[in-house]
Each structure stands twice: as C-alpha cells, then as structure tokens.
Hints:
- This protein is an all-alpha fold.
- The protein has helices at 3-33, 40-58, 61-69, 75-91, 96-119, 122-144, 149-157, 163-185, 199-212, 248-266, 283-297, 301-315, 323-330, 344-363, 368-383, 409-428, 432-437, 442-451, 461-469, 476-489, and strands at 222-224, 230-233, 236-241.
- α5 (96-119) runs antiparallel to α6, α9 (199-212) runs parallel beside α10 (248-266) and α16 (409-428) packs across α20 (476-489).
Amino acid sequence: MTNNTAFAELMAHQRQTEALGKIAERLGWDQETMMPEAAAEQRGEELAAIEGVLHARRTDPRLADWLDAAQAPDAAGAAILRELARSYARSVKIPADLAQELARVTSVAQGVWAKARAADRVADFAPTLARVIDLRRQEAACLAQGGDLYDALLDDYEPEATAQSIGAMFDRMRPRLVALREAVLGADTPKALQGSFAKDGQLALAREAATAFGYDWSRGRLDLAVHPFSSGGGNDSRITTRVVEADPFNCLYSTIHEVGHSSYELNIDPAYGMTPLGHGVSMGVHESQSRIYENQIGRSAGFTDWLYHRMVAQFGPLNVEGPEAFYAAVNQVRAGYIRTEADEVHYNLHIMMRFDLERALIAGDLGVADLEAAWNDRFLADFGVAVDRPSHGVLQDVHWSVGLFGYFPTYTLGNVYAGCLHQAMRAQVAGLDAAFARGDTSGAVGWLKERVQQHGGLRKPRDTIEMACGFAPTEAPLLDYLEAKFKALYRL
C-alpha cells in the first residue's frame, strides 16, 4: 500500500464516519425541538445503535495501518492525520458496550431532566443523573489510565487543557471579577426593560438580528428549545432559542449567541468538509465566537443603538427611552439565578461554581444526594442570594443530563479567548461602532471569519487564537474590557 493510497483510503473511511456522525447529531436536534415526547426511549435505542456503528468505525484496526502508512500531502492533510490519530487513540480505550450505553442513557436522560426541571423536583432526576455520572466516570477511567479522571473528560472539549491550568486561571480572575461586581452592585442601578413582548414579535426580531450578523438562512433555521443550542455544520447548521414574554433579551441574545456558534461552522473552508477539520477546533474556541457575537458586538453601545430602534419598531414605545438608557438596560448587572441570562460581570462566576461542583462529582468527593445542597450553599456564598427553586438552581442546565462533564469551563475559556480577539479586532478594524449602530456587523464578523472561523480544526485551540490575535491568549484583555465597560456604564 502506497502512502497516497493509504491517505485516500483513510479519507474515504472518515468521510462516511463524518456523515454518520451528522445523522446522529440531527437526531439529537430533532429530539430537542420536534420529537414526540413518547418517543424518548425509542430515540435512545436509535442513538445507541448509531453510536455502536460509529464506535466500530472509529476503532477499526485498519485505521492504525492507514495512519502508519499515510503521508500528508499538505498542511491540511497533516492536521487531519493529527486529529485522526488523536481520535483513534482515545476511541480504542473505550469498550463498545460502554459507548453505546452512554449514548442510550444520555438520550433518555434529557427527557427525564426536562420533566424534572418543569416540575421542580430534583428527586425525579437524581437516579438518572447518578447513572450518567457512573458511566462517565467509567469512561474517564478508560481514557485516563491512572491519570486524572476530570482531565480525561475535559480533553474531549478542550484538547491539552487541564483542570489545574484552568483552575489557576480562575483563581487569577476571581478577585478582579468579585471586586468589579461589588463596585457595580454598590452603584445606582439603571432602569430595567419592562413589559410584555409577544412571542411572534420576539421571534421576528430574533430573525432580524440573526440576519444582521450574517446568518445564512439557506443553510440554517431557527427553532425553539428548552435550552438554546446550535447543531450541525457544513451546509446544515441550525440554531434554537427560547421565548419569555417578559424578557425579550433572553430570546434575542440566545439567538445571537447561537448564531456565533453556527456561523463558525458555516464559515469553515468547504475544502475541509467531511473531515476532522470541518468542525470547530474546540469548545473554548467555539464559545469565543458565540460570546464575542453576543457580548462585545451584540451588547455594545453601537449595536444596542440599532437594536433599540428595531425594538420600538416591533413593539412600540418602551419604558426605557432612548438608545443610551436601552444600552444600560441591556447591560444591567444583577445577581440572578440563571447562567444563560447572566450579565457579563457575573457570568464567569457561574462557571467557576459549576467547574468546582462537577470536578467533585467526577472525583467522587460529592454525591448526587448532596448535590442540590452543595449547589445552594455555594450559590448563596458566591452571589448572596438564596436559590428559590431547583429550576433556578441545580436543574437549570441540560449539560449534566447529557454527560457533558468537562464542558462548563470552556465557557469561561471562550470568554477569555473572545477578550483577546476583541482587543485585536478593535486594533485592526476601524469604524466598528458606527457600523454597529447601522446594524452592520460585516467588518467584525468578516474579521472573525478570516482570522478564526475559516480554519476550522486546522490548528490546535490555543494556536488558533494566537495566530488570530498575534499574541498568546491570556485573561487580561477580558478583565480589562469588563472593567472599562462597566466602570463607565455605572460611573465608577
């Protein structure tokens, strides 16, 4: 077998594996948006069956031979071989029956969680969560082979990151975030947006906002979900949002956030389609795109100026008058319960809490029976507010139900990356604020497409950010941005 033949056969095998993975992802999207409730058990079996096929393909002994023999034709080919070797090394450590059981249980667990959340009954979800954690700990033990279990799981979402390095970063960030929060909460609070905003109007404005960010409707769609998410890639990347009639920002900024994720997938070089490079390189880099769309662009004074006028056109006069008051309302800082609704000052503190709790769960230092009390105690200590019900506390996030342990810290890592990208973008692209005020984000999103999105998985995560920015990623630009923005807004 020649080098060229080995590479070609490897690519043909991977193309089918990628296609089957997209089918599984589409089943997951359907489950969250349109699937009949009674189909949950059957969907679990369907996803388990597909996972069995995928696991067999990812551990096919021929992969080892192809990887040994193949020679990359170019830099992209070398990156493909790197990613496939990494995937194969991880996949062969996990027994097929464990991979299938994880797929089945986490599929069913989503429905159990959603019902428990709606009913505010932690006990209804606890046995299922315990089973998910047990399976993920088994998987982590296979991957870690004597090493740290949490690091083994984290590597699925942010390759080469460790809990120690992320924990150290959090320790550096926390004092400045807490000091900023205390200063802001001690200042006068701007008027909040109030009223009732009809569902149809919110969704129409959400679509308009998505269009303003360049979302390609010919390759995407917007649907409703309990927990907003995006799904897919290539020529099919879909977004979801949710509607609360008293809080239109929930819908609007969830939509903008998911547009950031989806645009990353849609803007990857088409030449990387159906290869390991045809996806976002990590969840931290992925989150950098959604967070910079949502926050540094979407919550900027310029963009909220445009959004204010679109809100008035859609809903009539608001209780906050003028773009400046609207900008303050969009960026109001308050110690709320819900992570996805948190302001920029509080958001990372939500993540730090979850990071500590899930590390304890995976390490076996915290049991599911004690999780709710641990969550409530930590939330009161960190935010000064007592959790009033489970849907505002331990049941609010979908992540643990689907086994995404190690995922949460990538949200703050994404914020850190976004801070770096924003600093570099501001230095290189002129006239952004004036353009945002016209609803024109093309300069910003075009820069992100060129510097980050088109490259997909070509480079490692930190290298992706460093190449885009011209400097190694650090938390300082994010913290500087937050302090400058909120000290000005709250006149500190």
